[in-house]
Amino acid sequence: MAEELAAFLPALTKSVISLFIIVDPLGNIPIFIGLTEGLREKERRKVFRTATITGFILLLAFAVAGNQILNVFGIKLPSFMIAGGILLLIIAIRILVVGWEEHKLTPESIGAVPIAVPLLVGPGAITTTILSLQEFNIPVTVVSVVIVFTITWLILRYIEPLYRVLGKNGSTIIARVMALLIAAIAIQYIISGLKASL
């Protein structure tokens, strides 16, 4: 039991950190605020609750049956890694160079799209979850998804005080730093996918 726990905790820590960096709820604070600008507090909370539940269910599905989902479409993991890495790199470069273009959408739609998908659960988060499933196991991957989305829910729940503390400049800096980390992870995905293919 002690040996299993000793192996479980480092794997869980690595999985949680990787997934949290990709989901990036802190770096997305300015985007979330911009997308929900003009909504009442009750409406904003409803939007964020919808986003958290939608993102959690989607990522949990990949955590439990990621390999089966890929097999249905005949996709090999290295190909998914390369595709996910390229898309993630494009997103990171876009954030670094031009930031995220905000689009005014109806309150009913912004919870699921674009906040849940692709801001919280995009190709990078899906790729990271499937890689965690491959490298570790289902329990580690599922628990890491639960932990990351619990933290994400707390951040979204208290987003306004956080935004006031960080300020616009602080939030923008965090977004750029996270984008750099995302770009590095994307490159690693592409390299690992190419190595596996070759």
Main traits of this protein?
single chain, 198 residues
Task: Please outline what is shown here.
This protein is 85% helix and 0% strand. It is built from 8 helices and no strands. The mean pLDDT is 84.
Shape: globular
Query: Roughly what percent helix?
Result: over 70%
- Main sheet, how many strands, which sense, barrel? none
Low-confidence stretches: none
Distance between the termini: 39 Å
Count of alpha and pi helical runs: 8
Averaged pLDDT, please? 84
Strand and helix order: HHHHHHHH
| Beta-strand segment tally | 0
What's the domain count? Answer: 1
Based on secondary structure, the structural category is mainly alpha
Q: Round the Cα radius of gyration to an integer and report it.
A: 17 Å
Beta-strand content: under 5%
Helix/strand layout:
Blueprint: H1 2-23, H2 29-35, H3 41-72, H4 77-97, H5 107-120, H6 123-135, H7 138-157, H8 159-197
